[in-house]
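Figure caption, in words: inputs first, then the predicted bound structure.
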Amino acid sequence: MKPIQVGLLGIGTVGSGTFHVLQRNQQEIQGRAGRGIEITMVADLDVERAMRIVGPDVQVVNDARAVIANPEIDIVVELIGGYGIAKALVLEAIAAGKHVVTANKALLAVHGTEIFAAASAKGVMVAFEAAVAGGIPIIKALREGLTANRIQWIAGIINGTTNFILSEMRDKGLDFDVALKEAQALGYAEADPTFDIEGVDAAHKITLMSAIAFGIPVQFDKAYVEGITKLGAADIKYAEQLGYRIKLLGIAKRRLPDATHRADGIELRVHPTLVPAKRLIANVEGAMNAVMAHGDAVGTTLYYGKGAGSEPTASAVIADLVDITRLHTADAAQRVPPLAFQPGAMRNTPVLPMGEVFTSYYLRLRVADEAGVLARVTGLLAEAGINIDAVLQREADEVSGEAATQTDVIILTHDCMEAKMDEALARMQALPTVLQPITRIRKEELA
Ligand code: NDP
Ligand code: HSE
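Bound structure (NDP present):
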C-alpha cells in the first residue's frame, strides 16, 4: 500500500525531531501502523536550513499553504506554534479535508472549541498528544486508558522549563535568569519564555486535560494562572525544612456539592504549590514532567517522562500519526472523540472562581519580634474559621541576616475556602507588626 503522505509545517525543534525519528524507526513504525508514513513536503520560513535537515528527497517550500493545497498530502502536522498563522493554517488544512496533528497547546487551549467543531463537521481528525507533557502519552491515558473512571482530580508538573529552573535554583544555587537561559538553550522554552515562567503554558495544558477528564469545553480564559517569578529562595528553603518541595503544578479538580459547597464545579488552576517531599511527584527534577490522575475506580495513577525537547515530543507527534494512519478509513463515528466525550455528552459544569477553591496554605509573614504578634496573627485566622496545621518561627538572622528585631513566621493551614483566606490575609497585612507583604503559597497533599 502507498505510504500515507505527511506535510510538515515548521521544522524547528519538534519538527526536526519528528523527521529524524520517523526516518530512523521507519520499519517499526510501519509495522505498527500497517502502512508506511512519509514526510514528503515541508514548509519553513528558513528553506535552506530545512533542506539541510531533510535532504534532497523531500520537497521544501516557504509557503505553508502550498503544503495544504497539495492533494497528495493526507495529514498536515502543524509545528509552528502560537495563535496567529498557526490557527489560520490548521483551519485551512481542516477545510481542505486533511487530518491535522499539532503540538500547539496554546492554539487548542484558546481556540480548541472552534477547531474541534470544524474538524468534526469536515469528518477529519485533530490529534494533539504532543501538546501536553511532551513525550508522556497522557492524552491517550486520560482519554482511553482511564475511560471507565469518574476522574476526580489531575495534578501535574507540566512545564519542563519551570521545573528545570526550580531544580537548578534549589540544587545548584543558580540564579533564575541563568537557569532560564539554560532551559532556552536546551530547546525546552517556548518562543516567548514568559509563557513558561508565568504559568501560561502549564495553564494551556491543564485546560486541555480538564476538558478530557471532565467533559467540559476547553476554557483557558477561566483558568487561574500564577507563575514562578515571584518565588523567593527563602520559601524554597523553609518548605524543605517543613518537609515539602515547591513545584509549579497544574491542577484540575472536580468539586461535588456538599454542606460547604453549594454547587458542583471544576477547579482549574496553575500556581507554585507545596507538595510533601515524600510524594514521588515532589522528586521530579529538571525538565521532566509528571502527571497524577485520580479516578474513582483506579485510584491514583502517575505518569512520568520527558515533557519537552526534540525527540521526546516527536515521539508523541508520531504516535498521533500512527493513530490517524490506522483510523482514517474508519467511519468517523467509530473514532475516539478528541476530548474523550461524544459531542452530545459534553457538560457545562462551571469552572469555579478562585475565591471558591478549597485548598491549604503556606504563609510567610515578616513580623516585628514583639510579644503577642503570633497570637494576633493566629487569632485572625481563627476568626476566619481557618484551622492551623503548623507554625514555625525562625530566628531573625537565620535567613535574612537582619538585626534580631524582625522574624519570619511560617504558618501551614488546613484546607479552607480561598475567599476566607483572602479576607484573613487582608486583616493580617493591616497589622502594624506585619512588616512586609505576606507570602502565600498554596499546598496540596495529593494523598
Ligand atoms: P521552533 O521555534 O523550534 O520551530 C518552529 C518552526 O516553525 C521554525 O523553524 C520556524 O521558522 C517555523 N515557522 C514559523 N513561522 C512559519 C510559517 N509561517 N510557515 C512555516 N514555518 C514557520 O518551535 P518548537 O519546535 O519548539 O515548537 C513547535 C510547537 O510545538 C509549538 O506549538 C510548541 O509549543 C510545541 N511544543 C514544543 C515543545 C518543545 O520541547 N520545544 C514540546 C511540546 C510542544 P523560523 O525559525 O525561521 O522562524
Ligand atoms: N515550553 C514547554 C515546557 C515545552 O517547558 O514544558 C513543552 O510543552
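The two ends are 51 Å apart (CA to CA).
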